[in-house]
Amino acid sequence: MATNIGMMDSAYFVGRSEILTWINSTLHLNLTKVEEACTGAVQCQLMDAVHPGTVPMHKVNFDAKTEYEMIQNYKVLQDVFNKLKITKHIEVNKLIKGRPLDNLEFMQWMKRYCDTVNGGSINSYNALERRREASKGGKDTSKKSVPSQPSTKSAAPAAAKHAPHNARRSDAPHVNIASQAVKSSRPSSSGGSSVYSEAERTAYEQQITELKLSVDSLEKERDFYFAKLRDIEILCQCPEIENLPVVEAIKRILYATDDDASVVAEAQAMISQNQQQIEPLDTIPEEEEDLLKLETQKRKSFINVDVDAAANSTLSPRQRISDASDVHCSGSPLVTY
Asked: Do the Cβ atoms of 34 and 16 come closer than 8 Å?
């Protein structure tokens, strides 16, 4: 069960087009962007498809527009996760913002989970009927999911005829990298007109989305490694260890302003130099310990001699004779005959 999968798992390398195709074919929808699933209703119905009867679809709102309505859908999804003992954390605050990367990652996880349940076989699930009967806004969603498909020849001129002069400009995102890349890739039209066909518009929109995903991914990676470096800096500033040679070497690398390999060599030299200073000092305590042992033995011998002399001086000749006779009568092996 793919309740917890790592960020380097193959599930997170599934492309946006494959995710959209999977959602549309499974639920009979017509989504064009992954972030359109930010309302949480799509996720609820996917869970209803793999676990029939588990999701209260009458509480799911496919027509959710406000963040409050979206949060209600995610509450339903969280309750389902709790029932099934799924420990996946739902980042609701990020998902309802409609950010492409966050919604893509969550839908990638959803696909992996659905594929692991019964081998992903949910062909017998009637998504249209389920939405119409139970969900709020399900009928409108079902109508949108089966649009009339005009011929390609008539669609292209109609799109070119009704497209405004600055329509493409309004769809551009606020990301500078994406805008610059799109501007550089736009073909120059012959008559100076800025009208594009539907295929060109779709290609540009897909390119913009991919660039936004790339920027979001790079920003997330940057923030992740910056947080790690900040944690290391805080640890090195602890009073208990900040003066250690190893910590000084880490700071040398951490605060280096130039990208030079010699910084690492200098840090290694600092550590090796400190070890060389410590090694001669290690022999000093051993010599001091030997001297202490010799002095202790000498003191013990002096004390024994002093005690024997004191004992001989305090005993009278009669007491000495009586002690000797007592030893003789007791049959002690110390007495020789």
From this structure: yes
Residue 233 in domain = yes
Domain containing 100 — which CATH number?
Answer: 1.10.418.10
Counting the structural domains of the chain, the total is: 2
- At 3-21, the pLDDT tens digits run 666 666 777 888 899 999 9
At position 318, the amino acid (one-letter code) is: R
- DSSP at 17: H
Q: Closest Cα to residue 171, out of 17, 187, 163, 217? A: 163
Does residue 38 share a domain with residue 127?
A: yes
Which pLDDT score is estimated for 41?
A: 94
Look at residues 92, 119, 135 and tell me which one is the last residue of a structural domain.
135
State pLDDT tens for residues 271-298: 888 777 766 555 556 667 777 777 777 7
Domain boundary among the residues 90, 118, 135 is at 135
State yes or no: pLDDT of 155 exceeds 60.
Answer: no
Looking at the structure, tell me whether residues 226 and 117 fall in a common domain.
no
Residue showing tokens 């000498």: 298
pLDDT, tens digit, 9 for 90 and up, residues 225-272? 888 888 898 888 888 888 888 888 898 888 877 667 788 888 888 888
336 within domain boundaries: no
DSSP bridge pairs for 61: 136
The mean per-residue pLDDT over the stretch 162-171 comes to 43
DSSP letters spanning 224-285: HHHHHHHHHHHHHT-TTTTTSHHHHHHHHHHT--S--THHHHHHHHHHHHHHHHHHHHHHHH
Domain check: are 19 and 101 in the same one?
A: yes
Instruction: Report if residue 214 sits inside a domain.
Output: yes
Residue 230 belongs to what domain range? 204-274
Query: In the prediction, which pLDDT does 141 show?
Result: 63
* Gyration radius of the chain over CA positions: 41
- Closest Cα partner for 248 from 261, 267, 274, 264? 267
101 in any annotated domain: yes
Check if the beta carbon of residue 253 is closer than 8 Å to that of residue 264.
yes
Residue 336, helix vs strand vs coil: coil
